[in-house]
Amino acid sequence: MSLTQKPIGIYFEHPEWFKPLFAELDRRGLPYEKIDAAHHLFNPAEKESPYSLVVNRMSSSAYLRGHGQGIFHTAGYATHLERIGTRIINGSAATAIETNKARQLSLFESLGLKYPKSFVINHASRAVDAAKELRFPIVVKVNIGGSGAGIIRFDTPEGLQAAVDNNQIDLGIDQTALVQEYVTPRGGNIHRVETLDGKFLYAMKVFTTGESFNLCPAEICQIPEEQSAEFCLTEAPKKGIQVEAFTPPAEVIAAVERIVAAAKIDVGGIEYLIDDRTGDVLFYDINALSNFVADAVNVVGFDPYARFVDYLEAQLPAGSKAAVPAELATA
């Protein structure tokens, strides 16, 4: 046992997405430990965490990789860390919003922000009733999705009814879904605004055909015909998908910062589009998991992981040195 700084705990389940984060931590010589969120245990009786800080990078798409148990486990772990006084980046409040699209709509409503007209259902049979109040086309969007998973478009009431009758609608791992008007984005692009420490970091326009309902511009994923655990492409710019940096209007940035403040998100992205029919700004997704855009230096002009690690260093508690096993001080 030696006196050394407690490591930062990086709590994650995807094997590829956070390599740039680990590289930046290694570059600075910061001690950290990789925490496998898919095969995790914790002791609720412990009084002190072995980590100086825990960074929550759990993904809502984990169930596509056979790791759905981690989504629900994370809520309890985050609550535990907060109770014993361990700083967690994107804690229990952020987790609750990230993993529940119905809560996201409620948050938009509470802030007076517009979003696509929607209803929330907990049984596929109610999709038809909800759709009667909506303009077609519509989408059925699972409550816990992530990376655009579990979104199905219906162009007609008859098509929706047939899908219900044939038990073809899966509401996802919590059996809850949104029934939502499909909105054609003006200019053929959606927008993602990344934030850090409650403030605007950068924004991107992502140009989409509208045929893929995976609106995950931080990675620019493409949904194949069958959902796959590995459909996200971290080297998106090399795949010919048009991405461009831009600065949103001041009122949009202000709205985004209000959203992340209300959701208690330390680092995350907010997605919106411009309704081609009305010109309205419609917010539609809150992401507490930010996989910063591939080739960020060329796309947005700087390395967001460097700024993220700057933030993590600033969050380390004063006097965070303690006697911990040497193996915990290395990744």
From TrEMBL:
<dbReference type="GO" id="GO:0005524">
    <property type="term" value="F:ATP binding"/>
</dbReference>
<feature type="domain" description="ATP-grasp">
    <location>
        <begin position="105"/>
        <end position="313"/>
    </location>
</feature>
<keyword id="KW-0547">Nucleotide-binding</keyword>
<dbReference type="Pfam" id="PF08443">
    <property type="entry name" value="RimK"/>
</dbReference>
<dbReference type="GO" id="GO:0046872">
    <property type="term" value="F:metal ion binding"/>
</dbReference>
<dbReference type="InterPro" id="IPR013651">
    <property type="entry name" value="ATP-grasp_RimK-type"/>
</dbReference>
<dbReference type="GO" id="GO:0018169">
    <property type="term" value="F:ribosomal S6-glutamic acid ligase activity"/>
</dbReference>
<dbReference type="InterPro" id="IPR013815">
    <property type="entry name" value="ATP_grasp_subdomain_1"/>
</dbReference>
<dbReference type="GO" id="GO:0009432">
    <property type="term" value="P:SOS response"/>
</dbReference>
<dbReference type="InterPro" id="IPR011761">
    <property type="entry name" value="ATP-grasp"/>
</dbReference>
<keyword id="KW-0067">ATP-binding</keyword>
<protein>
    <submittedName>
        <fullName>ATP-grasp domain-containing protein</fullName>
    </submittedName>
</protein>
<dbReference type="GO" id="GO:0005737">
    <property type="term" value="C:cytoplasm"/>
</dbReference>
